[in-house]
Design goal:
By secondary structure, this protein is mostly beta strands. It is built from 3 helices and 35 strands.
């Protein structure tokens, strides 16, 4: 916050900020226009304006299957994409001037700086066992986006994982994993701060709180800790993991891989759900040949939960889409009978819940893949994602959902070096899917209406059927401006 204090007796001086309607508050003595020593002391007025942010930081987990002592690493070819919004997305009211740079920091190593707005830069071959921080300063800070991604199709692991990089938090929920034979989950905690952070983990399951031998975990400054979730959840078939940090904040993701006997059945890395609420919306429910919606109830009271499918024409109740979940427990709603396709899902409850959707893209006992699609927070700001370039074809499908009212969103994306902007109208409690092709980046913002906008991208690779690899990554709200306050004199 920039603040200048200028004091002098006399009358209020109107400024250009007032004329523009940017003053958020002003204090003026009833006798401020009186001249003389006996009058009250003049008080400066306070005005606020919005200026482009000058720094931004996003945290990325690094290759997920590494860094656990005594556990063999699984090599995945992780890449990282970084982009900043083009000036056309920021709008004419945001004036970005001067120089800036974006750098990717891995431990004590720092990559080459990126200095051109609007382009997407891919960093390949991320180092195992290390998190990556994307740091932007100056003119490159507004509208920062980054995404980590890998694709493998080997005998021991098969899947596509597209992971949004984001700011850390202090109270996070991750819903993923299961108790089937050959299922293995890893929790990755990253700390981009200068001080160590203590993390406490709590697990809810079908029968309530899951007793765990794991105590507090310390994540070192600018460090990373990887944990086997089995050591925390045991054989729980429907786990929900709560991550609470003290002394700072952390970024948390959970990787889920499934080797069904000797057949790789899929892999995914998921990010935290939206904070517990009585309404949860999953904007990118990419449904394959089956699946379920997992629900966690943090409080003591039982939750009565109803699910609706949000399509272009509005909401439709999910078949058998009502369930009761005891407090401090998890439950699931089956997607049986829902045709293969791209949807949004809305859950309503009488008490706060967290939610995520799992769906499989596997035919019989053949190799396959699956997704975890978390609920996301609504946004009135700029939502963004960047995607690494790849030699194989990867199709990006943007899912937009509007709840509690209609809305119109502006969608801008870059594919094959070409920019496209489209205005998308959404009815109340409805969703739309846009095929972005091999998009390098995408930017979404509500431009009218009162609907609550949420967005995520479903990425698909492969020819189709059992050969298809899939992943879901929510778009992340990116900072563009910050409030700058200043005091103006009475003169």
């Amino acid at each position: 916050m920039n603040r200048s204090r200028l004091v002098g007796p006399g009358r209020l001086a109107l400024t250009a900020l007032v004329a523009a309607g940017l003053v958020t508050g002003a204090a003026l003595s009833p006798a401020a226009d009186q001249i003389g020593s006996e009058g009250p002391a003049a008080r400066p007025t306070t005005a606020a304006s919005f200026e482009p942010v000058v720094s931004a930081n996003l945290s990325c987990p690094g290759p997920e299957f590494s860094g656990i002592t005594g556990v063999e690493d699984i090599d995945v070819p992780a890449s990282l994409a970084v982009a900043t919004a083009p000036d056309s997305v920021l709008g004419s009211s945001v004036k970005v001037t001067g120089e800036g740079r974006v750098t990717v920091r891995s431990g004590t190593d720092t990559g080459d700086p990126v200095t051109e707005r609007g382009t997407t830069t891919t960093v390949r071959d991320l180092r195992s066992g290390r998190a990556n921080d994307v740091v932007a300063v100056g003119a490159m800070a507004p509208g920062l986006a980054a995404t980590q991604e890998w694709l493998v199709a080997r005998s021991e692991i098969r899947g596509l994982a597209t992971v949004s990089c984001a700011s850390p938090g202090s109270d996070l929920w991750l819903l993923a994993g299961g108790g089937a034979a050959g299922r293995q989950e890893r929790l990755i905690l990253t700390n981009s701060g200068a001080n160590e952070v203590t993390v406490d983990l709590e697990v809810l399951g079908r029968k309530g709180v899951v007793a765990s031998p794991t105590g507090s975990t310390v994540v070192p400054a600018r460090g990373r800790v990887a944990l086997l979730v089995d050591a925390i959840t045991g054989a729980e078939e429907s786990p929900a993991v709560r991550v609470r940090a003290t002394g700072g904040s952390v970024r948390a993701v959970m990787s889920d891989i499934w080797l069904d006997g000797s057949v790789p059945a899929g892999a995914e890395t998921t990010v935290p759900t939206a904070a517990p609420s009585t309404r949860q919306v999953i904007p990118a429910a990419i449904v394959g040949v089956g699946g379920a919606i997992r629900i966690a109830v943090p409080g003591l009271q039982q939750a009565v939960v109803s699910a609706r499918i949000l399509g272009e024409d509005g909401p439709v109740p999910l078949a058998k889409g009502v369930t009761r979940v005891p407090g401090r427990s998890t439950g699931e709603l089956s997607l049986t009978g829902l045709k293969q396709g791209k949807y949004a899902v809305e859950l309503t409850s009488d008490v706060p819940i967290a939610a995520a959707l799992w769906s499989s893209w596997r035919l019989g006992k053949t190799p396959g893949d699956f997704i975890w699609a978390p609920s996301t927070e609504s946004s009135t700001g700029l939502l963004a994602a960047a995607f690494p370039g790849s030699e194989d074809a990867r199709e990006r499908n943007l899912s937009l959902a509007s709840s509690a009212g209609p809305a119109t969103a502006s969608v801008t994306w870059r594919a094959g070096g070409k920019w496209t902007t489209k205005s998308v109208g959404l009815g109340q409690d409805a969703s739309v899917t846009l095929n972005l092709g091999a998009a390098e980046s995408v930017w979404v913002q509500r431009i009218s209406g009162r609907g609550e906008i949420r967005a995520a991208v479903g990425t698909v690779a492969g020819k189709g059927g059992g050969e298809r690899l899939v992943s879901v990554s929510p778009l992340v709200e990116t900072a563009v401006t910050s409030t700058v306050s200043s005091a103006h004199p009475i003169s």
